From TrEMBL:
InterPro entries: Glyas_Bleomycin-R_OHBP_Dase (IPR029068), VOC_core (IPR037523). The keyword Endoplasmic reticulum does not apply. The keyword Lyase does not apply. Keywords: Transferase. GO terms for molecular function: transferase activity. The lineage of its organism: Bacteria, Bacillati, Actinomycetota, Actinomycetes, Glycomycetales. This is Metallothiol transferase FosB. Residues 4-121 form the VOC domain.
Length: 123
């Protein structure tokens, strides 16, 4: 059997708000609570379990996505003026995309400071 990441905990100051932000960004749904978590199923193998924490250390979560998903995320971002996103760490939140690895990529900052990276080709 290969190794598959099944779930990971995403710390948040407000788990429901953080799960909702991520789900809406990615075109997904927040599932029913599972224990103390607000889960979002990313695909058949991976669930992000958002959990309330007093201290949130920002994390980085990277996702390889298809072109249609990338386009849908960019469209949603264009309608969310208060959300920081950009082409890369060195460029800040310049509201642009990058073209690393022959594809397209973007970084999105969530309200807890987490960085979601979406890319269409492996750099």
């Amino acid at each position: 059997m290969s190794i598959v990441l099944n779930h990971t905990i995403v710390p948040a100051s407000d788990k429901q708000a953080a799960a909702t932000f991520f789900a809406e960004l990615m075109g997904l749904a927040v599932s029913a609570p599972s224990g103390p978590f607000a889960p979002v199923a990313v695909n058949d193998d991976l669930t992000l379990d958002f959990d309330d924490r007093a201290d949130v250390a920002p994390g980085h979560y990277a996702f390889l996505v298809d072109d249609d998903t990338f386009d849908a995320v960019l469209h949603r971002l264009s309608t969310w003026p208060a959300v920081d996103y950009g082409s890369g760490v060195e460029n800040g939140w310049d509201r642009r995309i990058n073209h690393l690895g022959g594809g397209r990529g973007v970084y999105v900052r969530d309200p807890n400071g987490h960085s979601y990276e979406l890319f269409t080709a492996v750099p």
